[in-house]
Structure formats: structure tokens, C-alpha cells
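Posting for a labmate who doesn't have an account.
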Amino acid sequence: MPTLALRAGARIAVTAEEWHNAFCVVTRGRVQLELRDGEPGPVLGHDAAFWLRGTGVRALHNPYRRTARVRVITPPGSRALTG
């Protein structure tokens, strides 16, 4: 299971092909979802779990000073994000 580290100010684009079957859990810090129109979305904190499939979220963003970590869980054999 890959873990993404988002340093302060980091932004990771979400593409449907890569994140299709990904289930994510914030394991450290806080992550803000960036919505389809570029507007800031909800902030998810420690232990928040979420799917991105079909949500229209276009990026994960860390607007805070501390590094955030997100564990990405995908089904076996999935071609989703691998780290």
C-alpha cells in the first residue's frame, strides 16, 4: 500500500485513470480536496477515509506547514495509483 507524503504547500493531481479504485486514508496531518472548478473543498484530518471515484475532485492539496500523509489502498491487480 503506497503512502503519499504531501509536504507543506504540495498539490497532487487526481486523474480518473490513476485513482479509479483508490480508497484513501489520511494518516497524518490534514489534506484539502481541490474541487473540479479549482475551488478549495473540504479539509480532511487524521483518520479520514475517502474515495475519489466519481467525485470530481481534481487534486489533493496540503496548505498547511506540516507534512501530511495519505495511505492509498487499491484492490489486488488494480492498475490504480501505485506510489
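Reply:
Got it, the C-alpha cells are right above this. The longest strand covers residues 23-28.
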